[in-house]
Amino acid sequence: WAPKKGTCRHVFNGHDAHEAPITCLAVHPAWEKDETNDSAKLVISGSEDGTAKLMHVGTKKIVASFPHSPPDTSEVAAGAAASASAEGLSVESVAICPTLPWCATAGVDGNCKIWNMNSKTMHQCCAHPLSAAVTKMMWHPSLPVVVTSAADGVVRMWDARQGTVVSDYKGHTDMVLDVKGCWGAGVGGVDLVLTASDDHTARVFALPTQNLLQG
User: Fold this and answer.
1) Main-chain dihedrals φ then ψ at residue 74, nearest 5 degrees
2) For residues 140 and 114, is the Cβ–Cβ distance under 8 A?
């Protein structure tokens, strides 16, 4: 969109586009800081079709498709009744890494997947216990760290390099609906994460990321 005129500049559609409603969007952090950075004019979208699409706004092209949890076409081909596997599992959150050529997708299948945007392949899969649906996900601004919130009420910090949990944070008694990072805002420069939950509470968790990831 062109905000000043309120007119549509381009629509990404066609064979490579999503086949179901779009649930989430994120832009490259470098583009947010410098709108003249042509190489960073990237937007990633997630959809109920179980895929994420990486789009370059400058060239107006879909440059990659990430099959987070796509439909099981074998069931469709076999004439099976509609099911979650035949429809795909929705991607609920997407984000682009500020420091590495990676992006991440997270969804109701309980996985947060790390993708290499250059090779267009999956780098790691951060699997949540009991396949708890992931509601939100975000990157740390300077570390290879992903923070997720899930339907089991737990906030987790992951080492995206290894796909392993660095630490988890409990206290909510119901699904965590949203998570926001306040990086370096705590005492001594500690990273803080704010959460909002279906349990009618908002909480603040301290994430000592620098200490936990030394080495």
Assistant:
1) -65, -35
2) no
- 25 and 93 in contact (C-beta within 8 Å)? no
pLDDT tens, 112-131?
A: 999 999 999 999 999 999 99
The DSSP line for 105-127 is EEETTSEEEEEETTTTEEEEEEE
For residue 76, the 8-state DSSP code is H
| Full-model pTM | 0.88
DSSP 43: E
C-alpha R_g of the chain = 18
- The pLDDT assigned to 211 comes to 65
The tokens describing 191, both together, are: 């990273």
Q: Quick one: residue 53, left, alpha or beta (phi over 0 = left, psi -120 to 50 = alpha)?
A: beta
CA distances to 1, 47, 60 from 42, rounded to whole Å, are 15, 17, 10
Q: What is the pLDDT of residue 35?
A: 79
Q: Which candidate, 106, 199, 191, places its Cα nearest to that of 152?
A: 199
Question: Is residue 94 within 8 Å of residue 46, measured between CB atoms?
Answer: yes
Element (H, E) at 179: strand 176-182
Quote the DSSP letter at residue 209.
Answer: H
Q: Is the Cβ–Cβ distance between 75 and 87 less than 8 Å?
A: no
Cα 168 to Cα 155: distance, rounded to the nearest angstrom: 6
Token readout for 155 is 């906030």
Nearest one of 202, 127, 134 to 171, comparing CA atoms: 202
